[in-house]
Amino acid sequence: QKEVEQNSGPLSVPEGAIASLNCTYSDRVSQSFFWYRQYSGKSPELIMSIYSNGDKEDGRFTAQLNKASQYVSLLIRDSQPSDSATYLCAAATGGFKTIFGAGTRLFVKA
Amino acid sequence: DGGITQSPKYLFRKEGQNVTLSCEQNLNHDAMYWYRQDPGQGLRLIYYSQIVNDFQKGDIAEGYSVSREKKESFPLTVTSAQKNPTAFYLCASSIGTGTHSEAFFGQGTRLTVV
C-alpha cells in the first residue's frame, strides 16, 4: 500500500515563528509533491508544488524535497493566525495517481 | 472567473436512495477526479477521467458511478449500494494526467444520510 505519512498534530506555534510541517512517502517512483492548505469545512487549496530535490520558495512558504530520504517538508515563516489550518501533503507518480496524507493541523497563537 | 463548481453544498440522503453530485469546470482541463474525505483521514480517490467518454475506478469505487459526457462536467452518483456514504466529497480537475499536473478542487459537497 503506497502511503503518505504526516504527523496529525496539532502543531502549535506563536505568531511570527516558523512552522515546520513534515511528510514522508513510501513510493520511490513518486515524482511530484504538493502541499495543500485546508481550512475547517472548506476544500483544499494548492499552496506549493515541488518536483526536484532542494528548496523552493514562494513568499513566506518554502517547500523542501529529499528524494533519497523520501521526505518533503513545508516551512511557513512569520506565521500568522490566518495560517491556522490543516496542511495536506500529496505525492504523485502521474496526474491521477496522487496519494494524500491525512494532514497536519497547525495552530498559530496570536 | 475560471474555476470548479460543485453543487449542492449540502445534501441529505435517505436510506436506499440514489443521489447525484454535480461538478462543472470552466478551466478547459482534460482530467477530472472525485475524492472522498472522512474526518481525520486523507483524500481517497473514487473515480477519475482523463478524457470525455472515458473514466477509471479509483481506490474506493464500489457504490459509486460517474459519467463524462462533456469535458466540463463529471457528475458523481452515490448509489444505495454505498453503505456508508456520509462524507465530504471533493471534485478536482487538472490540465492532464502528466507528472506535473496540479489538481485544483471545487468547494465540496457534504453528504449526510438521514
Quick gist of this model?
The complex is a heterodimer of chains A (110) and B (114). Chain A has 110 residues and is mainly beta.
Describe this protein's structure.
The complex is a heterodimer of chains A (110) and B (114). Chain A is mostly beta strands. Chain A has strands at 4-6, 11-14, 19-25, 32-38, 45-50, 54-58, 61-66, 71-76, 85-92, 98-100, 104-109. In chain A, a hairpin with a 2-residue loop joins strand 6 (54-58) and strand 7 (61-66). With 114 residues, chain B is an all-beta fold. Chain B has no helices and 11 strands. Chain B has strands spanning 4-7, 10-13, 19-25, 31-37, 43-51, 54-57, 64-66, 76-78, 87-94, 104-105, 109-113. The termini of chain B are far apart. The interface between A and B is medium-sized, with 24 and 27 residues.
Keywords:
heterodimer, A: 110 residues, five-stranded antiparallel sheet, 11 strands, 0% helix, B: 114 residues, mainly beta, four-stranded antiparallel sheet, globular
Biggest interface, chains and residues, is:
A-B, 24 and 27 residues
Largest sheet of chain B: 7 strands, mixed
The total count of strands of chain A amounts to 11
Whole-number average pLDDT of chain A?
Answer: 93
Overall shape of chain B: globular
Q: In terms of per-residue confidence, which ranges of chain A show pLDDT below 50 for 5 or more consecutive residues?
A: none
